[in-house]
Amino acid sequence: MATDTHAHTGVDQHHADETTAELWQGGKEPFKISYGKLMMWYFLLSDAFTFAGFLIAYGALRFSMPTWPLPDVVFSTFPGGIHHAPLIFVTVMTFILILSSVTMVRAVQEGHRENKQGVVKWMFLTIIGGLMFLGCQAWEWTNLIAKENMTVSTNPFGTHITDGVYLNEDGTEAKNEKGEVDKFEAGHTYLIHKEHGEFHKRVFKITSGELSGQLAQESFGPKAFGGLFFFITGFHGFHVFSGVAFLTVIMLNAMSGLYAKRKNGYEMVEKIGLYWHFVDLVWVFVFLVFYLL
Amino acid sequence: MSSMSLEEGKKVVFKGMILLAIITLIEVFIALIGNGHIIHGFHLPKWIMYPAMIGFSLYKAYFIVYEFMHMRYEVRTLAMSVIMPMLLLVWAIIAFLDEGSYWKESRAGIELLNSKGYTKVMIPVEKHHEENASHEDNIPHEGEGGKSDVSPIDHGTDNKDAVQPEVEIKSEKDMHTEEKH
């Protein structure tokens, strides 16, 4: 489709609606789109089905559990030793991906103007954004695995189902870092820390409900958390990684003048742009389901 | 986008970036304020938080697909062939979030049946605030759903046929006061 370099305006849209019947009589392209772009759309649709399957599994499993670690407690760390910053780091990650989508749109716009330098510059910025996102995701994983000891079979984030107060070794009530009595309410999520390489499940006294007064111990949270988190964010991260790889290849191709020769408005850049926006779109929903809900 | 000059095109993109950033901030704000992180102890109910956050995310998705991916400028039939299945997927995700909750209720009911011998608690109509059975939640559970200590009661005869006093039947939903927020 060397001639059809420009997208259609709104006016053409109405015209296309009127002649829909004519479009499908044969001898024409009913969707007025190149083969490559159309197949990219349908590939993205199939990929959406894959991710939807994962998110459906997550949603069904999570809400069927009696308790689930609160995301704003689990994801409250920030690089630099900062704790108690709930959801801030993943919000930063979302912004990075949105910015990289914006730079991608600029690259496509420059491509329509056959501006090679502009295309390369904006694609380069998009790649940087993608790499920054991957770096952030790597930090998140390292923090969870190495510092907080989450694996696919062990979930050290549990949730209390009664009110209670933590006890010291000698049976007295423990104090938290502020010097107050270390008590909690039902629904409060906790992290079981490791001491000397072993999980240390803190003992507490129940202060509500039928078993009030009895002693109990922290227990692990639902096993499914680790597997679902690492698999789904890993799958998304893999898409980001492959997107960065493709973007690099296409940027190098653009630099070499390959697309300028084709005189099709740098359609290849547009196609990989679609893929990159899809990656951003998936993240919008992963972010929603995992961290906000 | 071809009908726009470059300057107009840049402006649209810039506006889009600001719009997406602001909506993201609003979503995160709702999540944080609803869980008590901004005003300590303040909680929003789920039926406000969830539809708001899902709605904003759907708007972001619409914006990314229509503006950034130029779907607005494609032939309408193509747009429908891609958008319709995606909308059904979103419906499926939301439906299965609800389905999971239903599984939890069913499981709680079965445990109640096995441990206490009934699936619903019966309360005499006169005394509205007294409960003659303990809450199911008071049975200590391990995080992964360990067994309760109460031995199963022999409930070989369902007392369906027995003469019932005037009772008010409460479902497990009302009994769950300690649900995670």
Structure, explained:
The complex is a heterodimer of chains A (293) and B (181). Chain A is an alpha+beta fold and 293 residues long. Chain A folds into two domains: 32-152 and 234-292, Four Helix Bundle (Hemerythrin (Met), subunit A) (Up-down Bundle), CATH 1.20.120; 157-217, no CATH class. Chain A is built from nine helices and eight strands. Chain A has a four-stranded antiparallel beta sheet with strand order 3-2-7-8, with no helix packed on it. Chain A starts with 9 loop residues before the first helix and ends with a helix. The model of chain A is unreliable at 1-11 (pLDDT under 50). With 181 residues, chain B is mainly α. Chain B has a domain at 6-110. Chain B is built from four helices and two strands, in the order αααββα. Chain B has helices at 6-34, 46-68, 76-116, 172-175, and strands spanning 121-124, 167-170. Mean pLDDT of chain B is 75; it is low at 130-164 and 176-181. At the A-B interface, α1, α3, α5 and α9 of A face α1, α2 and α3 of B.
Tally the helices of chain B: what do you get? 4
Strand elements of chain B, count: 2
- Share in β-strands of chain B: under 5%
* Estimated radius of gyration of chain B: 26 Å
Features:
heterodimer; A: alpha+beta; Four Helix Bundle (Hemerythrin (Met), subunit A); B: 181 residues; mainly alpha; two-stranded antiparallel sheet; 4% strand
What would you say about this model in short?
Helices cover 57% and strands 8% of the residues of chain A. Chain A is built from 9 helices and 8 strands. Mean pLDDT of chain A is 89; it is low at 1-11.
Chain-wise SSE layout:
The complex is a heterodimer of chains A (293) and B (181).
Chain A: H1 10-18, H2 20-23, H3 35-64, H4 71-74, H5 88-112, H6 116-147, E1 157-159, E2 164-166, E3 183-184, E4 189-191, E5 194-195, E6 198-199, E7 203-206, E8 215-217, H7 224-255, H8 258-262, H9 267-292
Helix pairs in contact in A: 3-7, 3-9, 5-6, 5-9, 6-7, 7-9
Chain B: H1 6-34, H2 46-68, H3 76-116, E1 121-124, E2 167-170, H4 172-175
Antiparallel strand pairs in B: 1-2
Helix pairs in contact in B: 1-2
